[in-house]
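Feature request, filed as a ticket because there's no other form

It would be nice if the structure record came with a short human-readable summary line next to the tokens. Right now we just get the raw output. Example of a typical job, pasted below so the devs can see what we mean:
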Amino acid sequence: MKPVSLRPFMPRPAIRRRFRSYHRGYAVQAPGAPTLQVFNRHIKYLQKERAAIDIDTGRKVDYLKDEVATRLCERLLDINRQFPLVLDLGANSCNIARALSLPDPDPSPAKPDSQPLSHRLTHLTAADSSPSLLHRDVDLPFNESLSITRETLHDEEFLPYEENTFDAVLSSLSLHWINNLPSVLSQINRILKPDAPFMAAMFGGDTLFELRTSLQLADMERRGGVSPHVSPLADVRDVGGLLGKAGFKMLTVDVDDIIVDYPTTFALMADLQAMGESNAVLGREMGGIRREVLLANEAIYRELHGNEDGTVPATFRMIYMIGWKEGEGQPSPLPRGSGQINMKDILEGGGNIKTNT
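Raw output as currently delivered:
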């Protein structure tokens, strides 16, 4: 006799059905004009913090930033006025403050003992996103020659200052790491007082073109492809348009090349790293450049750009810009068509030149 199966008589287990509502999310554009992200701002912050650790090396490689800051501050000599409140945006290790404390580079013959440019400022606010680099030289003597306040910014792309605050804004070798340069220029225009100047210097154009081309050729030879090792830079032809769109008037843009000779390409890249100027492009390869690529780059660099004395040159192209916030009584160009002299008559030496008598 077969045993009775109990399974058919057992109650079926309760089956709980769970109904979940699924919500599909979509990426949406933030309000305002879209921003192209080129640089990793966090990586740049880490690079600057790391560069500030070795104080002695950091001060030795400040030769380029100190030189550019000095050339930028010399342009203040052309402006005959006092500046009560000045902002140094992207101050790095306060290179502009150090340049302002130097003796007057163009003293008047009538006053051979003229005072440094710092006496034309009442107070300087040095702002940077790297607190370690910003306070690196706080114990040096130049801090006693001017009133200076150091402020750490969360990000140089967002300026936490009120409208019409500063009598001048200076920036030296910092704007080339900004992702949204048009927005930053507009913010600078906003925080300036009417008829106040903005003066800046930034890397641009063909800066380090020797290193850029040699690394590309070395990558092609050893790896069969190209990886971005040198950051993209703004062109001088674009700077004037950006300043104009930001609302600045009476624009002046000029270019200056500084060529530095190094014993090897390894010394060049070591100095760039100690300056905090290493590559920070989004999507770059993590880690250092491969050894075989570096060796190939050294040989190609010397073959294409090397000097006869065995050194290798590195070109740093500086873009200097000056723009003024619009203010009452500021000079402005005459309306189109109001001229009384035909340039063609002047250049060709013929025709009648009308003059008002």
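Something like this underneath would help us a lot:
Strands lie at 83-89, 121-128, 148-152, 168-172, 197-203, 248-262, 312-325.
Residues 171 and 200 are 5 Å apart (CA to CA).
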